[in-house]
Amino acid sequence: MNATWSARAKKKREEVLGLIPPKWRLPRPLPSPESQKDVTADYIRQFLSEREIDITETDAVGIVERTRTGKWTATEVVTAFCHRAALAHQLTNCLLEIFFDQAIMEAERLDANLATGKGPVGPLHGLPISFKDQFHVRGVETTMGYVGWIDTFEGVKGTRKERNVESELVREVCMLGAVPFCKSNLPHTVMSGVTWNHITGHTLNPFNRLLTCGGSSGGEAALIALRGSPLGVGTDIGGSIRYPSAFNEIYGLRPSYGRLPYLGAANSMPGQNIVPSVCGPMATSARALRLLVEATLSQEPWLHDPAVVEIPWRRELATSLPSDGTRLTFGLYKTTGEVTPLPPVQRALAFVADLIRKKGHDVIEWNPPSHLEATALALEAFKADGGVDIHYNLGLAGEPPQDRVEGNYGIRATTPKPGNEVFDLVLRHKRYQKQYMDYWNSTAKLTSSGRPVDAILSPVSPVPPHLFFATTDYGKLGYTPWVNVIDSPGVVFPVTRVDKNIDKVDETYQPLTELDGKIWEEYDPEVSHGGPVGLQLVGRRFQEEKVIALAEMFQEWLA
Amino acid sequence: MNATWSARAKKKREEVLGLIPPKWRLPRPLPSPESQKDVTADYIRQFLSEREIDITETDAVGIVERTRTGKWTATEVVTAFCHRAALAHQLTNCLLEIFFDQAIMEAERLDANLATGKGPVGPLHGLPISFKDQFHVRGVETTMGYVGWIDTFEGVKGTRKERNVESELVREVCMLGAVPFCKSNLPHTVMSGVTWNHITGHTLNPFNRLLTCGGSSGGEAALIALRGSPLGVGTDIGGSIRYPSAFNEIYGLRPSYGRLPYLGAANSMPGQNIVPSVCGPMATSARALRLLVEATLSQEPWLHDPAVVEIPWRRELATSLPSDGTRLTFGLYKTTGEVTPLPPVQRALAFVADLIRKKGHDVIEWNPPSHLEATALALEAFKADGGVDIHYNLGLAGEPPQDRVEGNYGIRATTPKPGNEVFDLVLRHKRYQKQYMDYWNSTAKLTSSGRPVDAILSPVSPVPPHLFFATTDYGKLGYTPWVNVIDSPGVVFPVTRVDKNIDKVDETYQPLTELDGKIWEEYDPEVSHGGPVGLQLVGRRFQEEKVIALAEMFQEWLA
């Protein structure tokens, strides 16, 4: 253990904790995860006033309805969320940056502005918003979990950019009236399904603190699950918004590449443009996802981020039901063929498929080109630089990679893929996308409407929330990267929680593969009990409006 | 000289010529380029009937007005263009594939269909259309100028795809009623501004056959200039639609990447996704460009080509004048700082700038981030595979690279750029795009409307049409790749022709650089006399509607 980097990490961790005002500190000793697994709902509520509970358990749309009209002051709302985020952090380690003072000052400015009678500054007036620690907020550091990035700008010292730049999306939501107040934890490198780094350590799953919150946008998911933030922004390159959203009973959107501005956010291998990372909202309601996307698009981000495509919010697409009165058809995706989803995930899928039918719509089997090929393709893209970027940044402080990162990238960089092979991979990617599109189009002949399948219903993770670094890398089981590879919008919505009395081990199960056998053998309903299970709905590229509308409908149905 | 490949090339060349019906062959001996430099207008008309001239000198929009209503039969129209294309090929070597019989049969089918009273099959009913020889048409070969691709599918034998596949755009325009009838010449590899390959040899500039037609979509440009086709499709990775359009007095559009479907067309380094090639229309009028883009988008190509973005044709954007009555502002781009445009190009620029002012609009100087940096960046992307793809395909027949290809790619492949450096290049590209966007936005404070500059007026080539393989590679002077690098739509429109009596050598000119001195020294008004000069209008990414509308306005102004 290197004294230098571990000391720097510890110092940073304590600085962050030190930014929690004494009045918001929990009584010591904190309960152990073993003694208090679930810290959601009533547990965390005990530390809050009724008024604070009322505010923090209102969704983002409900909040702006009140802050825009002055029914609630921005200051009270932001302060309540700061308080609850402080509690959430003490219970789950979900934050990496705290800037409550700065946020409350901004809220006061917004209130003063509203008091002049000029009206709200925008559709997000007074809305607290949290960001995964890849986004730069003026006045605040960004480490992305790297010890070597402390006191630097993305690893470089003396740039004058330190604490002094704003990512484009941050700038835009601030223009719209939102108030950033904290940044959330993530695995260093962002390339892991387990939210752990040397600075903060593990972010715990608030529903069962013996389990991981998933990742890489895990801090964001745990924070929002505890209602420490009504709306946050994560990133997703292979499932990093969806995996933790499913594990934390929240809504999360992975938009198509180029729909929302990513410009000026930190990232690993930021030039990797084959299966690129995207940013998207995570929230306590489906309509809050809509709020963020619609509001951001009103800023015409295509005039500020060259990667954003000029597609405004299309109100006419934002409806769940076809105007011609035909039934919707959902493609039901059940298994990769390598690993079958475990009992609680199967139950969630069957339950939602039944619900769809009960509501008068159709479900057909989804048998697309192999999702394992999509996963293989994505992993090859993620490693095309030979891990040069990741090992460079780990090397800045000499910190070792976390378990999952080492699993993918080893302990040192290897030979990068030569340019011609990078381009071969691009071609393989394009061919896969075309096959997938052709399959999707071909389902028109199977639906009652004559339209191709409206959306795909799929597991997010075939396993429920699990132990931190289990022997298997559960983040790599292939149920999420296909969405990145076809570049479709995917929305996660909460469905159920693991119940050890229902989701029992199926002793008769015949594994499909050796890996499947291992996954099913490792499953322990006692361990995963209480862990949330979410599913994803996947739509056509750039049709964020439609998948969000469908998720809103599912939220109503499931309420 | 390898007997095998040269014999195969010769055989192919003769087969193509053999597909011209005897009645359409020109009397032998053909006049030499020296004795008959200009073969446009009256020269080529002498071989056509009045009726054929009437048909072939009608633009694509005028044609479909008549073929859709049955005023002209598709058969007569297609046959007239086949005749004129046959003449054009004999005069300039502009074709690489001829399939007149197949086209005329298709035209007859369309006429029969219209006769049943079912109406036209689509907006392009009966419109002849030509394609650069990267596009696959069923029943026809695609060699892309490579000898090694003869009797193969993109260089591979026995795939059963030979003569049996259709590129997506070809499929779509056929669905819309268009009739492909020939494919046009190009440099092998497509990576050259001179249209020459071992099969066809040089395509000559129809206005002055001692000069090049430019490239790489040079066959298409020469064909359309001679009215052998009303509408063609070329491709542009660094200027390949615009450079030959400017040299041949036609209109050409380089759309944004993802606006039109490229899927299923052959290409060099098809996985190169940093500064990618795009396809776009070339035609005898600006409104014909609109016709092709609007019609294609009506097919919802985003449901068939995963790279196409879901942006339909937006009628409300397709107007040249602002609805608020404000004046337009054009950014006038004068020089890269390395090479100053030669006298005829300067005259064209000054003329159009004056015209803009006379029409009551504004012109301001355009001083963007260096276009030379954009050019350097594009060349680095084009060579990131070390020339592996190009040398592999040249090697299939053992043919040597043409002059300009050798200049860029040498005589054998070199070490590809490692994956991490490929991604570094992507980042450099993104940074450049952002700088450019910021500059463009900043011009809002300089315009009378308060909007950023509406479009940029720029040279296409700083030199007019020139000798085939002059000592300098005129295709690399940096006036076109910046448009690819910022991924903007660019429309070329014809302005003037070189006049040796006006565009005299300026003996007092002080060169900016050594290269500039060379360019100006090589300029000979006697040699370039009669060569067309076009300029380009560049708009915001994905705003094809707007730049086309502006080009329509310029066409009217210049008429």
SS strand fraction of chain A: 5-15%
Rg calculated over all Cα atoms of chain A: 22 Å
Identify the overall geometry of chain A. Answer: globular
Number of strands of chain A: 15
Q: Given the helix and strand composition of chain A, which structural class is it?
A: alpha/beta
Major sheet details of chain A:
11 strands, mixed
CATH superfamily label of the largest domain in chain A: Amidase signature (AS) domain
Can you tell me the CATH architecture of the largest domain in chain A?
Answer: Alpha-Beta Complex
Which CATH C-level class of the largest domain in chain A is it?
Alpha Beta
- The residue fraction in helices of chain A comes out at 25-40%
The DSSP helix count of chain A reads 19
CATH topology category name of the largest domain in chain A: Amidase signature (AS) enzymes
Mean pLDDT of chain A: 97
Distance between the termini of chain A: 49 Å
Oligomeric description of these chains: homodimer
Number of domains of chain A: 2
Which strand order spans the largest sheet of chain A, edge to edge or round the barrel? 1-3-2-8-10-9-14-15-13-11-12
The unreliable regions of chain A are none
Largest interface: A-B, 47 and 47 residues
